[in-house]
Amino acid sequence: MSTLSRMSRISVPEIKARKGGEPLVCLTAYTTPVAKAIDPHVDLILVGDSLGMVLYGFETTLPVTLEMMIAHGAAVMRGASKACVIVDLPFGSYHESPEQAFRAASRVLVETGASGVKLEGGREMAETIAFLTERHIPVLAHVGLMPQSVRQSGGYRARGKSDEDAATIIADADAAAAAGAFAVVIEGTWEPVARKISQRLDVPTIGIGASPACDGQILVTEDMTGLFSDFTPRFVKRYGNLGGEIAAIAASYGDDVRAGRFPTEAHCFGTLEAEIDQAVNKQVSDKLPKDDREVG
Ligand code: KIV
After folding, report:
1. Whose CA is nearest to atom 5 of ligand 1?
2. Annotated catalytic, 134?
3. How many helices (H) does the chain have, and how many strands (E)?
4. Ligand 1 pocket, residue 137 CB under 6 Å
5. What's the pLDDT tens digit per position in 258-285?
6. Percentage with pLDDT > 90 across the chain
7. CATH homologous superfamily for 3-244?
8. Where are the domains of the chain?
9. N or C: which end of the chain has fewer CB within 10 A?
10. How many Cα atoms are found within 13 Å in the side-chain-facing hemisphere of 267?
11. Atom 4 in ligand 1: which residue has the minimum CA distance?
12. How many CA atoms lie within 13 A of 97 on its CB side?
């Protein structure tokens, strides 16, 4: 069914059932207006912890807190009525133990109303993924380039070039799917490796800098629209220049204010003649005894 004509929210089982079918269209959102704008056109909205870099200007996603994710998750849920909304668990909120992950994930689900959570990791997170899914918390896994691990991996380099690294990522994806993840995001990974993972998993893969063979694709909306342009990863296709448009609009506004073209009478209260007459008449009428007031 086309996402445009749908009334109810797309569920996690429906996302899972899209394995090998029509490609899943996924984007990130962090706010109500962006969620509203993209909702009719996507299957899944990810409230990604990329908001730390894109929205808050941090250098990495590491300073993002659970409170931030919950606030933005709730904002996105207020704007999206059709897409399946998934919220990222931020760094440090799930690594300690499956129990810690459950506490964080259940807060996300209860306080935002989202359908599931995403976490980074494969084999090392398999126990946690199983713990959550056995307790009715849908999990979207994330393998390959994992931004929460940049301190250890040494940067944002594409993964899977060597045979050894390819085998690591494949094992991570296998473990995440076997543990119960309903889908697996593959980020920044050598194309043949992402293709191979997509062929072997029985749950959908969602690629970002991965492969057209993935069952779906995701981009960060701010990258794709040109709202965030500090750097543009090679895997991003830019569909617009919103950052440039906002700058041009701000410049026009500045010109108008400096030249006295804004505000005009139309933008002020009590300045238009008709409005003034109406207000004066009302004041006079309010002062008259009830019987002397005009009718109508
Ligand atoms: O945080 C995020 O936005 C993500 C996507 C890039 C998949 O994890």
Report:
1. 48
2. no
3. 12, 8
4. no
5. 999 999 999 999 888 777 777 778 877 7
6. 84
7. Phosphoenolpyruvate-binding domains (3.20.20.60)
8. 3-244, 264-296
9. C
10. 6
11. 48
12. 3
User: Can you give the length of the chain in residues?
Assistant: 296
**Atom 6 in ligand 1: which residue has the minimum CA distance?**
220
Sequence-distant (≥ 6) Cβ neighbours of residue 262 within 8 angstroms: 253, 256
What pLDDT score was predicted for residue 239? 97
Residue position matching structure tokens 């009478």: 265
Q: Where are the beta strands (DSSP E) in the chain?
A: 24-28, 44-47, 84-88, 116-120, 139-144, 183-187, 205-208, 216-219
Residue carrying the six token digits 């992950």: 101
pLDDT value for 229: 86
Ligand 1: does its nearest atom lie under 6 Å from the Cβ of 140? no
18 compared with 277, residue with greater pLDDT? 18
Residue 284 token pair: 């006079």
| pLDDT the model gives residue 296 | 39
- Strand partners of residue 24: 216
- Count CB-CB contacts under 10 A for residue 191: 16
pLDDT digits (tens, 9 = 90+) for 86-143: 999 999 999 999 999 999 999 999 999 999 999 999 999 999 999 999 999 999 999 9
Interval 29-43 mean pLDDT: 98
Q: How far is CA 207 from CA 204, 259, 275, in A?
A: 10, 49, 58
- Ligand 1 centre to CA of 88 (Å) is 8
Ligand 1 midpoint to CA 220 (Å): 7
Cα separation, 90 vs 76, in Å, equals: 17
Residue 66 to residue 70: CA distance in whole angstroms: 6
Whether the CB-CB separation of 70 and 90 falls below 8 Å is answered with no
The span from the CA of 220 to the CA of 153, in Å, is: 22
Q: How many CB atoms lie within 10 A of CB 259?
A: 8
User: Is pLDDT of 222 > 60?
Assistant: yes
Amino acid occupying residue 128: T
